[in-house]
Amino acid sequence: MKITESPLLEVKNLQTYIKTKKGEIKPTNDVSFSINRGEIVALVGESGSGKSVTSLSIMGLNASAIKYKPESSIEFKGRDLLKLKEKGLRKIRGNEIAMIFQDPMFSLNPVHPIGKQIAESVVLHKKVNYKEALKRALELLNKVGIPDAARRINDYPHQLSGGMRQRVMIALALACDPELLIADEPTTALDVTIQAQILTLLRDLQQELNISILLITHDLGVVAEVADRVLVMYCGKVVEEGTVDEIFDSSLHPYTRGLMSSIPPLHGISKDLLDAIPGVVPNPLELPKGCNFVTRCDFATERCHQVEPELTRYPSGNRVSCWNKLDKEGEMKEHVTTSINS
What we know:
Largest sheet: 8 strands, mixed
Shape: globular
Oligomer: single chain
CATH topology of the largest domain: Rossmann fold
CATH superfamily of the largest domain: P-loop containing nucleotide triphosphate hydrolases
Strand order of the largest sheet: 8-9-10-4-11-12-14-13
Helix content: 25-40%
Radius of gyration: 21 Å
Number of helices: 12
Order of helices and strands: EEEEHEEEHEHHHHHEHEHEEHHHEEEE
Low-confidence stretches: 335-342
């Protein structure tokens, strides 16, 4: 992993809101993180945690539905994407920042061959003729492991398997040599064997091309396979952040521990039932006072019901938003005042 001092992407105080007849919903509430060059950062959480809104905000694809608080900023190579008009975003979207969507069957155009779809993207952003763009499309299909690419380049999406369609989506995302790749649940609809192949492909391409990847997922198994750093989101907020080793070996937040304990073991004797986090994600219009996780947490105290904790860096390296962190045995350890604020 090659990292420069200046982050490629820096999200600062991302606060989004949607006004409804019943009140204001905040899909993301003060989300901040950065991605360095050549780094894979995973954004993890249940459905409704704000992962996809964060990624779509970076791409500028939800401006019509989502509003931003003035203090929000998304700086890409020093430019605030939230201040760019649509024309400026188009020059970046698909060119410098590309996205792999969750379901390629709905993302690819069903009436055009896959080669044509990749070539058209190259023509649009690189200003080359169609013949050269088609040659580039063939190179990419070979790079992502499409067998007999010279023949399959004329296939339509419905003629390909789910795994092959996802490879085409990756080729399409890489068509214009982006510096940042956003992968939104890239393995959700695939079986375990194909998932492993796609994850290996993403990791190999990242190392070969030295691109940065923001991986959106709810699957911690996927995270362990490819990511360098992990951000755990809950109810629109980052509740824990750390390296893969810090999260998997010494996670401190009860929510992160709940996600970890719900993963089936790869070795040894499996339990009949996996552990589950009690309760459900609260209604975004009726978030509890204090910590958003308080209604589902077995370790909640009176302070948790009254005051929202801030992200605090611990000696282990993790940044955690919790008054009562957990030790390695899952026992509650009260938040101490000597913690290092980030």
